[in-house]
Design brief:
Blueprint: H1 2-101, E1 106-116, H2 134-146, E2 151-154, E3 157-158, E4 165-168, E5 171-174, E6 177-179, E7 183-188, H3 191-199, H4 204-210, E8 214-225
């Protein structure tokens, strides 16, 4: 009897241990399964946020490409405008040089300076001191060019970069053509600049008067000059 009790006690003890172990194992499995659900939910939330962020990034990337295209178009337009301005400036420069060398006709406001020999030569004085010389013409012509004259002519003879002027007895030769006094120097340009430049105190006009030259300056609303390559009809 005593042996049976011992065996029964052992069986009961083992059975209780097994039941306890089984309960504990099942509980741990259930807890582990619950933690896995939480982790899955958290991963799903993070995955959703990543997808949303990726979508935002794609939209921003698209906007960036559009802005870059707009900037590129603006730069191209600016480059074209700058190129057009460069061409425009080049054309203006070419026209200015063609005007200076006399290849094209030109007209506009300007001034006319007339130089005459002195009407009276005192007795015993050298008559050459009372005549207009090429040096007097040069002074007026240079002052006109320095003051911005676009074109200059002497007695209707238009000057260019190759022009030459020199005295030959009682006449002044301009590019091979002799002219007697009076000498009419016409200049196209800004009247408000040319006239003060000629009349400044101690300037060209005062110097010519000191040399006994009769000087007359007139402002004109329009002066026309033909190109050098065109013969007047």
């Amino acid at each position: 009897m005593k042996g049976r009790h011992v065996i029964l006690s052992l069986v009961t003890l083992v059975l209780g241990f097994m039941i306890s172990f089984s309960y504990q194992f099942t509980r741990e499995q259930m807890e582990n399964h619950h933690v896995s659900d939480q982790q899955w939910n958290e991963e799903n939330r993070i995955r959703t946020q990543l997808n949303e962020q990726n979508e935002k990034n794609r939209k921003l990337q698209k906007e960036l490409l559009e802005k870059q295209d707009q900037i590129q178009k603006i730069e191209e337009d600016l480059a074209n405008e700058e190129q057009e301005q460069i061409y425009y400036n080049m054309v203006e420069e070419v026209e200015k040089y063609r005007m200076v060398v006399g290849e094209i006709g030109v007209k506009g406001p300007g001034v006319v300076v007339t130089l005459e020999d002195a009407s009276y030569v005192p007795s015993g004085q050298d008559v050459n001191n009372y005549l207009v010389h090429e040096s007097h013409l040069f002074k007026v012509i240079n002052e006109l060019y320095v003051s911005g004259a676009q074109a200059v002519s002497v007695n209707g003879k238009r000057l260019n970069h190759n022009s030459y002027i020199y005295c030959n007895g009682p006449v002044v030769v301009v590019d091979g053509d002799p002219f007697p006094a009076p000498f009419v120097i016409s200049a196209i340009g800004d009247v408000d600049v040319l006239t003060p430049a000629l009349n400044m105190n101690g300037g060209i006009t005062d110097q010519l008067i000191q040399d006994n030259i009769v000087v007359k300056i007139e402002s004109k609303t329009e002066i026309a000059m033909d190109p050098l390559l065109r013969t007047n009809e």
